[in-house]
Specification:
Two copies of one chain form a homodimer. By secondary structure, chain A is mostly helical. Chain A has two domains: about 50 residues, Orthogonal Bundle (Arc Repressor Mutant, subunit A); about 140 residues, Tetracycline Repressor, domain 2 (Orthogonal Bundle). Helices cover about 75% and strands about 0% of the residues of chain A. Chain A is built from nine helices and no strands. In chain A, α1 packs across α2 and α5 crosses α6. The longest helix of chain A is centred in the C-terminal third of the chain and has 26 residues. Chains A and B meet through α6, α8 and α9 of A and α6, α8 and α9 of B. The first copy, chain A, binds a DNA duplex (30 and 30 nucleotides) through α1 and α2.
Chain lengths: ~210, ~210
DNA sequence: AATTCCAGAGAACAGTTGTTTACTGCATGG
DNA sequence: CCATGCAGTAAACAACTGTTCTCTGGAATT
């Protein structure tokens, strides 16, 4: 079904991606609500009017950016929860995976952390939607675990969302520590690991 | 020592507060990095140049706003942790207090949630600093509790920061639910309460 | 080979922005 | 009571913004 795009469509998607990439770069030191359309086109090297061929507005571009950046998170979250070692090893491995992802795509998680509560409503909504989806995915993974026996659906979802939020907080801490000393980075690893561990302990004794 | 201000200084502080209030209002539907200085003065009804008598830039105003808005949070956080009922009642009461605070000062917590990871570095730093202070305060309160016997200082601070982050997440959820149905609000209360409870359970079994 | 289509260019538009300069009126301190 | 200080005003600046309109070159379709 995936017909090889013509030269025409290929070029279009290329500049579209260039616009998205340029925007993501510019958003490292400002928020979406202050991002100008001309600013983006200037960074790419196309005329301002070309922008409209791809997006209705910068808010529209922001929504597209949400799909892109959170799409890259799906595999990480999946593997973070599903690695079936012992409970303690799982926590350590999760924090490690988060750190690795932040190193690989710092701009992605900066964008999400910044715009999750940012000034552009449609973007906030898109992020909220995607994170709810993540919550469901994590819940499904948790349900497979034998430790989840006797848990209600509501409680599983509650725990899943707690994990998702904690992942974002941890990722954000790694991002801040990135332009700091390596010792600070190690400190973040230790704190994040212990917080995750405490949540896991709470999970273990939930049904008492 | 607090000498009654002259008419001069009183007027100055009055317009300064007017600028802060107007800015906080405008920031409900945009972020600080897109807030224009003229926009603020227009909302107050003074000349654009008057702005410079009070702030160097909008970023400067943002930092001042952090002190204001997070100052109002100090009493809440203090009482949230220190009410010395039984553990379960404490959780319920904490969530209740957060809900009440969000209803009282929605713009305050919106500002903090938005600019904590926002596009203006000095403001991010100011918020980070204040939240670290909160973490210390919570830790001091936790240390008084008999349940904290045998805990290391690092672990206490780790738990305190976990609580602070969880409070912010919960407050943010209440804010979103504010312009939604009352049933949604109740759902937020239930989820937040159970998340807090799970953390408390983790705390209780931490030393096993 | 002729025609249609469309991504991108270019110019122009009215509005807005931050910042500077010179000013005014009034509360304040000698 | 008079001189100084200073909060706020007014006008002007170059630079920038989003959006519209018209146009063009080359891929896509027939």
């Amino acid at each position: 079904m995936s017909h090889t795009l013509g030269i025409r469509q290929a070029q279009k998607q290329k500049t579209r991606q260039a616009l998205l990439d340029a925007a993501l770069g510019l958003l490292e030191e400002q928020s979406l609500s202050s991002l100008g359309l001309r600013e983006v086109t200037r960074a790419v090297g196309v005329a301002p009017t070309a922008f409209y061929r791809h997006f209705r507005s910068t808010a529209d571009l922001g929504v597209a950016l949400v799909e892109d950046t959170l799409g890259s998170l799906h595999p990480m979250i999946r593997t973070t929860v599903s690695t079936a070692d012992d409970s303690e090893q799982r926590v350590v491995r999760a924090v490690e995976l988060i750190a690795r992802h932040v190193d690989a795509y710092p701009a992605h998680i900066r964008f999400i952390a910044r715009e999750r509560h940012g000034g552009v409503q449609p973007v906030r909504e898109a992020i909220r939607e995607q994170l709810a989806r993540f919550g469901q995915e994590v819940k499904d993974e948790l349900a497979k675990d034998c430790e989840s026996a006797g848990w209600s659906d509501d409680d599983l979802l509650m725990l899943a969302n707690l994990y998702v939020d904690q992942m974002l907080i941890t990722a954000s801490l790694f991002l801040e520590a990135q332009e700091s000393t390596p010792e600070e980075r190690d400190r973040v690893i230790q704190v994040a690991t212990r917080q995750m561990r405490l949540i896991s302990i709470g999970r273990h004794h939930w049904l008492d």
